[in-house]
Design brief:
By secondary structure, this protein is α/β, with parallel strands linked by helices. It contains seven helices and five strands, in the order αβαβαβααααββ. Bound molecules: zinc ion. Belongs to the beta-class carbonic anhydrase family.
């Protein structure tokens, strides 16, 4: 069976057995917060459990590396919508140690793309049309700096309500231990 077939088969009994009942919650987060973190597999459960959050407690926004790549991209949009439409009153930005985006080799990624059939010409066209493919794919070297940079983007965003605290954390994906990068209560206005 394929993964998709397994999903659909499992889902039939999940619904039939009313397993969904244990996950019932509202669309607004009980702890009135939104967490932005990395899509790393190790954080799937650990990334909320190590912070003491359960189902329904928070909004979670994820991407590769927990990087806000653009002030008007989908991440910033999600954070703003969480605040203005979905009941979040605090933002937590959490990077993690040993992040795949911290060590990503852009040239190797581009080589893999080419091996999978993406043409060099396509990369050239993108670069000529103003999309810096290297910048688009690049990671970061220091997760603590990256978290702080994200916080600065949020605080400086013209649509951001500066009375909202933005906290910065770095989690160890092996132990769940947190390092505090920024206490948002100290800079809220
Ligand atoms: Zn990561």
């Amino acid at each position: 069976m394929t993964l998709l077939q397994n999903i659909l088969k499992y889902n039939e009994s999940f619904v039939a057995n009313k397993d969904f009942e244990q996950y019932k919650t509202s669309k607004n987060p009980d702890k009135k917060a939104v967490l932005f973190t990395c899509m790393d597999t190790r954080l799937q459960d650990l990334g909320t459990k190590a912070l003491g959050f359960n189902n329904g407690d928070i909004k979670v926004v994820k991407n590769a590396g927990a990087v806000i790549t653009h002030p008007y991209g989908s991440t910033m949009r999600s954070l703003l919508v969480a605040i203005y439409a979905l009941g979040a009153e605090e933002i937590i930005i959490m990077g993690h140690k040993d992040c795949g985006m911290g060590s990503i080799d852009v040239d190797a990624v581009k080589e893999t793309m080419k091996e999978r059939g993406i043409k060099e010409e396509t990369l050239d066209i993108l670069n000529r049309s103003g999309i810096d493919v290297n910048h688009f794919l690049e990671g970061f070297s220091d997760v603590f700096e990256r978290v702080q940079h994200n916080i600065d983007i949020v605080y400086n965003h013209p649509l951001f309500d500066r009375s909202i605290p933005v906290h910065g954390l770095v989690i160890d994906p092996a132990t769940g231990e947190l390092d505090l990068v920024h206490d948002g209560y100290k800079t809220q206005q």
